[in-house]
Design goal:
- This protein is α/β, with parallel strands linked by helices and about 240 residues long.
- Helices cover about 40% and strands about 20% of the residues.
- It has seven helices and nine strands, in the order βαβαβαβαβαββαβαβ.
- The strands form two sheets. The chain has a seven-stranded parallel sheet with strand order 3-2-1-4-5-6-9, sandwiched between helices. A two-stranded parallel ribbon has the order 7-8.
- Strand 1, helix 1 and strand 2 form a beta-alpha-beta unit.
- Helix 1 crosses helix 7 and helix 4 packs parallel to helix 5.
- The chain is globular and about 45 Å long.
- The termini are far apart.
Length: about 240
């Protein structure tokens, strides 16, 4: 199967895994629509994608804005949700309820709103691919909120697979990937983290955005799986 002539909407598609997925899907013949919170990011992404790619600035925490963008987009074939801010990690005892709730706004409630308004626009044979992470499977100290979001995303994936059927709904669960997700760290600390974590993994390195993008493309193309969470982590949960 191929994505040729399919129309794919990628929320968070202007950087990192989302942009890599947009580029991979475009190479497979798809027409791409990307959205991000900042118009500047949208413009930069459009410069790297084929002519005819559509872009929108969108606040995913605003339900009416989400509804409006999907009204403008119209019918399409696949939705990919990779939107996410820089990880906010910290000790559980020092995390306020407001901080925890804010962390859910984009990653969970943004995906919830997107699925709500996209579901009725997805053409027969289409799908939604969400994003979670292996923190739900192997949480570390300081990751309580992040692990909770990941667990909630897995449950949402399975629930939507039933709620939105026959639209297929799946999710990708990456391990550590070399993206702007870690931009709150210094470059030296980032490089050291990638090197140290990579040395512990069976594959010998951390992931690249292009590695993970292939999983999104697969889930859009394969046509039969639904309610599944695909772990792509270089073997992190094994060691």
């Amino acid at each position: 199967m191929t994505l040729k002539d399919k129309r794919i909407v990628i929320l968070g598609g202007t950087s990192g895994i989302g942009l890599a997925t947009a580029q991979a899907a475009a190479q497979d013949g798809a027409t791409i629509v990307v959205a991000s919170s900042r118009q500047r990011s949208v413009d930069n992404a459009l410069a790297t994608l084929p002519a005819g790619t559509e872009g929108h600035a969108l606040d995913l925490s605003n339900e009416e804005a989400v509804r409006g963008v999907f009204d403008r987009i119209g019918a399409f074939d696949h939705l990919v949700f990779t939107a996410g801010e820089t990880l906010q990690l910290g000790e559980f005892a020092d995390t306020s309820l407001d901080q925890a709730q804010q962390a859910f706004n984009l990653r969970f409630w943004g995906a919830f709103a997107a699925a709500k308004y996209a579901g009725k626009l997805i053409r027969p044979g289409g799908s939604i691919v969400l994003t979670t992470g292996i923190a739900s499977l192997r949480p570390r100290k300081g990751w309580t909120v992040a692990a909770s979001i990941c667990g909630a995303m897995e449950a949402l994936t399975r629930a939507l697979a039933i709620e939105l059927a026959p639209v297929r709904v799946n999710a990708v669960s990456p391990g550590v990937v070399r993206t702007a997700l870690w931009s709150n760290m210094s470059e030296a600390d980032r490089d050291a983290m990638y090197r140290d974590i990579g040395a512990t993994l069976p594959v010998g390195r951390v992931g690249e955005a292009s590695d993970i993008a292939q999983t999104y493309v697969y889930l859009m193309r394969e046509g039969f799986g639904t309610g599944q969470v695909i772990v792509v982590d270089g073997g992190t949960v094994l060691v």
